[in-house]
């Protein structure tokens, strides 16, 4: 698997604790690393690559020209730029990639291997947590308008061939924008926990809990206790979860998460695509060339 870490001005402050934890759980000899960002974050990108690169099979960096700031336009630019870069330049278009934003926190040794195993066995195109898409109703109440795969998830290298909406036009977050195309091909996983906008992680009564902050509606809560199955948690905005795990690497945290069955050891075979997609995984096929010409 390719681990893609976007480095932005908004999240770079989280890099210290998360990078330290990724190093503590390494190495990752069966996986590759790609660090992406814009020129203004080049120094932070190079520092991150220098710290994590030696732990991976291969590592690289990609600096995007231009870009915009703010949510959701900034993340949308990073995401679609990465999709196009991988499609144009990946030596192995069949390799899945994990969009690992810096508010993610690994929870257990072997976390990336465990994700690889479940993705391989799912025979799905996408893998990630599913979350309701909320809009405000006429009285200000929350209304569910479909579901989406949370953006920090696993995608196929040939994502362009599974989406007509990947360019993400307008001021809507990319994961919501493509929800109708992604959901039918999604394997919903419990290995990735989505705790959006959380802070102050701590232990209480044998569980790891947190607080929400700055939520768009008083009825919306995403600060669930860390689930036993989770190997990654997304959404910690103050580094407290990474620091908690680092402070407790004597085994207490690992006991909250069962070890995988010995039969589930990683095989690292490439994900299997449907019969209709087999031709598309090769880098130099005619459909890929046509799609690149349309994207230019």
Keywords:
296 residues; alpha/beta; Spore Coat Polysaccharide Biosynthesis Protein SpsA, Chain A; 5-stranded mixed sheet; 4-stranded mixed sheet; 9 helices
Helix-and-strand structural type: alpha/beta
H/E element order: EHEHEHEEHEEEEHHEEEEHHH
CATH topology tier name: Spore Coat Polysaccharide Biosynthesis Protein SpsA, Chain A
Number of helices: 9
Main-sheet strand order equals 3-2-1-4-9
Span between termini:
27 Å
Average residue-wise pLDDT: 84
pLDDT < 50 stretches? 251-289
Question: What is the domain tally?
Answer: 1
Q: How much helix is in the residues?
A: 25-40%
Question: How would you explain this protein's 3D organization?
Answer:
With 296 residues, this protein is of the alpha/beta class. The protein has a single domain (2-295), classed as Spore Coat Polysaccharide Biosynthesis Protein SpsA, Chain A, CATH 3.90.550. The protein has nine helices and 13 strands. The strands form four sheets. It has a five-stranded mixed beta sheet, with helices on both faces. Strands 5-13-11-12 form a four-stranded mixed beta sheet. A two-stranded parallel ribbon has the order 6-10. Helix 1 (15-25) packs parallel to helix 7. The protein is globular and about 50 Å long. It starts with a strand and ends with a helix. Residues 251-289 have low confidence and may be disordered.
Secondary structure elements and pairings:
Layout: E1 2-7, H1 15-25, E2 28-38, H2 42-52, E3 56-64, H3 73-89, E4 97-99, E5 104-106, H4 111-122, E6 126-128, E7 130-136, E8 142-149, E9 154-155, H5 174-177, H6 179-182, E10 186-188, E11 192-204, E12 207-212, E13 232-236, H7 240-247, H8 252-255, H9 286-295
Parallel strand pairs: 1-2, 1-4, 2-3, 6-10, 11-13
Antiparallel strand pairs: 4-9, 5-13, 7-8, 11-12
């Amino acid at each position: 698997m390719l681990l893609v870490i976007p480095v932005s001005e908004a999240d770079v402050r989280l890099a210290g604790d998360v990078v330290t934890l990724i190093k503590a759980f390494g190495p990752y000899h069966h996986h590759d690393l790609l660090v992406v960002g814009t020129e203004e974050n080049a120094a932070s990108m190079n520092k991150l690559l220098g710290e994590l690169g030696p732990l991976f099979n291969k590592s690289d960096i990609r600096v995007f020209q231009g870009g915009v700031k703010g949510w959701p336009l900034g993340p949308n630019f990073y995401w679609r730029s990465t999709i196009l870069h991988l499609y144009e330049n990946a030596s192995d278009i069949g390799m899945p990639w994990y969009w690992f934003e810096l508010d993610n926190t690994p929870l257990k040794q072997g976390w990336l291997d465990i994700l690889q195993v479940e993705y391989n066995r799912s025979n799905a195109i996408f893998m990630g947590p599913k979350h309701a898409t909320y809009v405000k109703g006429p009285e200000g109440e929350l209304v569910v308008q479909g579901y989406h795969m949370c953006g920090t998830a696993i995608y196929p290298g040939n994502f362009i061939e599974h989406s007509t909406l990947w360019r993400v036009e307008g001021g809507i977050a990319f994961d919501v924008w493509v929800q109708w195309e992604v959901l039918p091909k999604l394997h919903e996983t419990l290995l990735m926990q989505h705790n959006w906008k959380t802070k102050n992680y701590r232990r209480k009564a044998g569980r790891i809990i947190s607080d929400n902050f700055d939520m768009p509606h008083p009825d919306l809560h995403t600060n669930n206790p860390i689930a036993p199955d989770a190997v990654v948690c997304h959404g910690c905005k103050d580094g407290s979860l990474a620091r908690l795990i680092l402070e407790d690497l004597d085994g207490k945290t690992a006991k909250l998460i069962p070890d995988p069955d010995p039969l589930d050891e990683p095989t690292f075979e490439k994900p299997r695509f449907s019969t209709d997609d087999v031709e598309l995984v090769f880098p130099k096929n005619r459909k890929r060339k046509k799609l690149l010409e349309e994207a230019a």
